[in-house]
Amino acid sequence: MSATVSPLAPTSYADMPSIRGVRMATAAAGIKYKNRTDVLLMAFDRPAAVAGVFTKSKCPSAPVDHCRANLGHGLALGVVVNSGNANAFTGVKGKAATQLTARSAAEALGCGENEIYLASTGVIGEPLDATKFAGVLGDMAKGATGDFWLEAAKAIMTTDTYPKVATRSAEIGGVTVTINGIAKGAGMIAPDMATMLSFVVTDADIAAPALQALLSAGVEPSFNSITVDSDTSTSDTLMLFATGAAAADGQTKVEDANDPRLAGFRAALDDLLKDLALQVVRDGEGARKMVEITVTGAESDLAAKKIAMSIANSPLVKTAVAGEDANWGRIVMAVGKSGEMADRDRLAIWFGDIRVAVDGERDPAYSEAATTAVMQGQDIPVRVDIGLGAGKATVWTCDLTKEYVAINGDYRS
Amino acid sequence: MSATVSPLAPTSYADMPSIRGVRMATAAAGIKYKNRTDVLLMAFDRPAAVAGVFTKSKCPSAPVDHCRANLGHGLALGVVVNSGNANAFTGVKGKAATQLTARSAAEALGCGENEIYLASTGVIGEPLDATKFAGVLGDMAKGATGDFWLEAAKAIMTTDTYPKVATRSAEIGGVTVTINGIAKGAGMIAPDMATMLSFVVTDADIAAPALQALLSAGVEPSFNSITVDSDTSTSDTLMLFATGAAAADGQTKVEDANDPRLAGFRAALDDLLKDLALQVVRDGEGARKMVEITVTGAESDLAAKKIAMSIANSPLVKTAVAGEDANWGRIVMAVGKSGEMADRDRLAIWFGDIRVAVDGERDPAYSEAATTAVMQGQDIPVRVDIGLGAGKATVWTCDLTKEYVAINGDYRS
Questions:
Q1: Residue B6 belongs to a domain
Q2: Which among A125, A332, A340 has the least Cβ separation from residue B234?
Q3: ipTM surpasses cut 0.90
Q4: Is residue A285 a known part of a binding site?
Q5: Are B264 and B316 within one domain?
Q6: How far is A59 from chain B (nearest CA, A)?
Q7: Interchain contact, B193 vs A333, CB within 8 Å
Q8: Among A1, A334, B134, B339, which one has the highest count of C-beta atoms within 10 angstroms of its own C-beta?
Q9: Residue A116 sits in which domain range?
Q10: Are A308 and A298 in contact (CB under 8 A)?
Q11: pLDDT confidence of B34, banded at 50, 70, 90?
Q12: Pair B114, B256 in one domain
C-alpha cells in the first residue's frame, strides 16, 4: 500500500450490497506486512458454482496450479487469498503450502480440500509459511460476515494505492440478482511483481459450465484488454462464483450460457469486469494518465487487438503520453512493428477528436496547440484507423513515468 | 548529440584504416541541427557490390522503400545519409524528397539514380526539405576523402552520445582485405524515435548475392539480437558494400557465399557486426548497465531467442537491473510469458557465475550479498537454462532508467 494515492483513483467507492450466500472475513497473519490485513477468506453457505481464468504463464504459481486442478468439478465452498507472498517458483515447498492451506480451510468450513480455491500475491521465490494461516482460518470462518466487500478488497492489496470494488445488478427471468467484484492490480513500491487478482460473486443460480462460458467471453474485452507494462504475472487469477441464493426468489437455474434469460446478466457482468479492469489500469505503477486506444479498419478484430496492444505496450508511446507529447510518429512506429497488415498510406490517427495524420502523412489541418490540449487531460483517447477492413478493438493502458522506474528499481527487500 | 557521454562508452575509438575504393565527405546542410554536420556522402570509385537488410516495419520510411526498390541490381556508386529528419510517414512528399536526393547525388557522381542508396534518421512525419542537399552534394563529391570514418560516424548521429566505428581484417585466398563499419543508435534527447543505421564497407571483391547471404546471416546474432526498448524503427537500415579494390592485389572475385575462401571474412564480418551492435546497446537511451542474456536448454535456437528477448524486453527485469536488484523472480516471469515451452521445475538461473535458482526454486546456496556484487557491475551476465533441449541464444540489452523516461518524455519540439 502506497502512502500516495494514484491521481487517477475514483473519488468514491461503490456502495457494495451484500450477496446472499457468501460471507467474508480478513485477518492479519503477518505474511509480510505488519499492522495490516493480509488474508481474506470467502465462505459460501452452500456449494457455489465456480468459473475461473488464469495466467497463461508457463511458470504459474502453486495456487494457480491448485485452482486449475480443482476447477473441473465446478463447486466452491471457500476461497483463501493472501498478499505479501506469491507462492510462485517455490517448488515442492510451494505445493506443500497450498495443500496445508486448503486442508486448514476445509477443516474450518467442513468441506473437501478440492472445494477450496487459493490465490497468493507478493514476492516470487520466497517460501510461503502456510502455518500462519492454520491458526487464523477457524476464527475467520466463525466471524465471517456478508457486509465486508471493501475490507476484502483492502486485504488483497499489495502496493495498490486504493481498493478496487464494483457492483451491478441484473434480472434473470424477472428475478433481480446482484454481482459484486473485487480486484487488485499493480502499484508496487517494494515487492517483486504485478499480480492481477479478481474475485466476482453473484447470487444468481447459474451452472458452472455456463458461468465459465460467460467469464471466458467477458475477460477478453476487459482484463485481457488492459496492460500496464506488458509483463504477465505468474499468478493472474480471475474467478466468478454463483451462490444460487436467488433461487429463493424464484429464479430457476440457468444451465446454458446461450439461454436468452442471461442477456441482462451478461451485459452487467461484462460492464462490471470492465469497471474493475479500468480501476486496475488507473492504479498502474506510477500512472498519471490513462490512455484508451481504439483501432478500427484492421483486417480482423484479432489484428486490431494486436495493433492496439503494440501501441499500448510501446515504451516510446507511453513516455510520450507522460510528457504530454502528441507524438503520433511513435504511433506509426508501433503500428508498423505489430506484424499485422497495415498500409502506411491509408493510416489515420486521432488524439481525442483531432485527426493528426491521414493518408500516410501529417494532417494538413494539424494544430499543435489543439492537440497538446488533449494531451494535457487525464484520460487520453487515441484512435487509429488502418483503412483495410472492419476489424476493431479497444485497449487501455497508462503512461510510463519516472515513478514506474523508481517503484520497480528500488531494492526488493 | 547529448552533452553527457554514456558511462558505457568505449574509452577510445578504433583507429580506422582507409578502404580502397570508397571516399566520404560530410556537410552541415541545416536539416535540423545547427553548427554540426548532418549529411554524409559515401562515393565509390567504381560500382561496389551491395547488400542490405531493412526494418520489418509495415510503415517503413521513404528511404527504406528507395533502397529496397534498387537493391535488386546489386551495384552502388553512392550513399547519402542525413540526420535530423527520418523522412518517414511523409506520403508523396517523402517519395519526392528521395527522388530529388537521388537525382542530385547521381548528378554529382555521374551515375544512375538507382545506383544511389539513401538513409534518413530523425523526426517522423516532418516533410524533409531535400533541396538542402542539392546545394552541397556536388562539393561533397569533389572533396570526398578516404580517411574520414570517424567524421562519417559523427555526421549520422542524432542524439547518440558517441560515434560508433569498428574495423576488422581478413584474408581471402591469401589476400588481406579490410572491413570498416559505422553505426548510429538510440540516444535520443529531443527527437522522436530510435533509428538504427549502419554502413559497412570492404575492399574485398565479392559478388552482391554472396554479400547479401553473408549479411543476412550476420545480422541475426548481432543487430537482430539487441534491444534497447522493444520499439522497432521505421528506418532501420544495415548495408554492406564491397568495392572490390583488393582485386588489384590478386584477390579473385568470390561469387558464392559458401566458398570456403570466405571463412575468415565471414568470421571477421560477424565479429565487426557484433562489435557495432554492442556499441549501439551501450549507448541505449539512459543506459547505465549492459545486460548479456544467454538462454540454453530451450527446445530450439528460435525458442531460446524468443525467451531471451522476452527477458531483455521486460520493463520489470530492466528496472530491476537499474536498481542493482538480483530479482530473479522477474526472470521467471519473463520466461513464463514468452509463450515458449518451459517447465518451471527444471529452470535454473545464474547472475554472473552465481546460480540463484534451480529445480523450480531458489538455490539452497543462494547468497544475497554475492549476487548483489554481480549486479553492481557495469556488465551483467544473466544465464537461464530451460532444461528441455539444446536450443541456445544470446541477446544484449541495457537497463531501464529514469533517464530513459526523461529523454523520451521531453517535449518533441
A1: no
A2: A332
A3: no
A4: yes
A5: no
A6: 5
A7: yes
A8: A334
A9: 22-282
A10: no
A11: confident
A12: yes
